Amino acid sequence: MRKREIFDIIEFGKRYDEKTGTFRINIHYRTRTEITPRTIAVAEAFGLGVDEHQEHVIYDNMELKISPRDIVLVTGESGSGKSVLLKALAKDLGDQAINMADISVDSDRPLIDTVGKTLLEGLELLSRVGLNDAFLFVRHYSQLSDGQKYRYRIAKTIESGKQYWVMDEFCATLDRDTAKIVAFNVQKLARRERKAVLVATTHTDLLEDLKPSVHIHKRFGKEIEVKYFPDKVNETCSLARKMHIAEGSREDYEKLAQFHYREAKGLVAAQKVFALKRGEETVGVIVYKYPAITTFGRRKAFGRKLSLQEINRDLALISRVIVHPKYRTIGLGVKLVRETLPLVGKPYVEAVAVMAKYNPFFERAGMQKIAESRPNPQLVEAIEKLRKLGFNPVFLTSETTNLKKLREMSADGVEEVRNVFKGISGGVYGRRLLSIYQTFLKKEDFVARVESASIEKLARMLRILGFLTQTKVYLFWKNLSVGT
């Protein structure tokens, strides 16, 4: 007889009632066994009956109530029927469901070009799943870690707009810390989007972070246990509960500086450094510095111009907030800001941030958004000209990358870069690009300085141009417990 080591799934009746959200599930499977002298001998030795077709029951008239906003966790040992159940549920849900494993991935383009209908939508989606690093935006899917790939697929799942998100072998390939973070993030995003999640896993350590409203535990055979819980957002990841804020140091900053999109050049004029610790591990850091003499948004916040004495006495500036990429999306940035604002000891704290436009964690931490700057049109035009010369605007704020690019260019290419700068009027932008502080700069003087600038100077000017063309947000916080 021809060997056939397969089985048939037998499903009876219509299982899903859309009005009540009830699934009635009957799933049997029939194995096909090859009859051979040895299988007969085994049967005789153990007193078994041998039949070419044997039917087994794994779900027998089981009733499940699942709403369009439930978080459903299916657990059980391998081979108990978790995946079969998930496939049956997804089949009945039809076009309302999306299976994360079926998401098409474009590995030939940068991430930012594969998510969202617009740049802003793409940045917001990637930021929401924790891929909020400027350098990640321009990486390809194949260059991501397993955890980052999982986050990317979640972003694509959200983008689909489907009501039910189906994820089999949920977080099976991830280390357990990352798995807990992803589980926490999935439930948070789904509940805020008012979507349902159906996941299956052999792991039993995700219950606290996923916080399902329906928990199905499948044992072998027909034995099954179903529990229903209140459908409430889990606001705190289990890992965050094990972390605390401590007085930080330059060493704490340097451990994480590489994960900030701006180049790490050490601490300059730092007032305070605080670290977020998990045991001995530094998972986050926030740096408070002495503020600049002038900055956009400050006059609007105070209603007047501050004196230099007032700035030095009363103000602190949040210069850096860095969270290790592994621990992003579980609210640690908010925790760092909210819990350290009162510890600085200043009446007022300000922040000027780029990512605050796409990830408003400063506002969630209690700061007030005061103003948003728009880049000057002539600077935006300069960026576009540089793009045509081969410069990626995302990397312009990296002086090292700029210098490498300039050294690879021909003399004519470098001259074209100079011409781009010459097209910018002098004045305030000329002074800022050249890092000079004289009160007035004529156009011809600006052009002359650009013509004589070294390759290294051009690299710095490109970096400054990158910062000048970023859309920035000015945020403000008043410490009501400290007198002015």
Main beta-sheet strand count, sense and barrel state: 7 strands, mixed
Shape: elongated
Percentage of residues in strands: 15-25%
Q: Report mean pLDDT, rounded to a whole number.
A: 85
Ranges with pLDDT <50 over ≥5 residues? 1-9
Broad structural category: alpha/beta
CATH class of the largest domain: Alpha Beta
Helix content: 25-40%
Record the strand order, biggest sheet: 11-12-13-14-15-17-16
What's the tally of helices? Answer: 18
What is this structure, in a nutshell?
The chain is an alpha/beta fold and 484 residues long. 35% of the residues lie in helices and 22% in strands.
Question: Care to describe what's here?
Answer:
The protein is α/β, with parallel strands linked by helices and 484 residues long. It folds into 4 domains: 1-64, no CATH class; 66-228, Rossmann fold (3-Layer(aba) Sandwich); 240-368 and 473-478, 3-Layer(aba) Sandwich (Aminopeptidase); 377-468. Helices cover 35% and strands 22% of the residues. The protein contains 18 helices and 17 strands. It has helices at residues 37-46, 82-93, 119-128, 134-137, 146-160, 176-193, 207-210, 250-256, 298-302, 308-314, 332-340, 361-364, 377-388, 399-408, 411-422, 427-434, 443-452, 455-468; strands at 7-11, 16-17, 22-32, 53-65, 71-76, 97-99, 164-167, 196-201, 214-218, 224-228, 244-247, 270-278, 281-289, 315-323, 348-353, 368-372, 473-478. The chain has a 7-stranded mixed sheet with strand order 11-12-13-14-15-17-16, with helices on both faces. The protein has a 6-stranded mixed sheet with strand order 6-7-8-5-9-10, with helices on both faces. Strands 1, 2, 3 and 4 form a 4-stranded antiparallel sheet that branches. Strand 14, helix 11 and strand 15 (348-353) form a beta-alpha-beta unit. The radius of gyration is 29 Å and the shape is elongated. The termini are far apart. 35% of the residues are buried. Mean pLDDT is 85; it is low at 1-9.
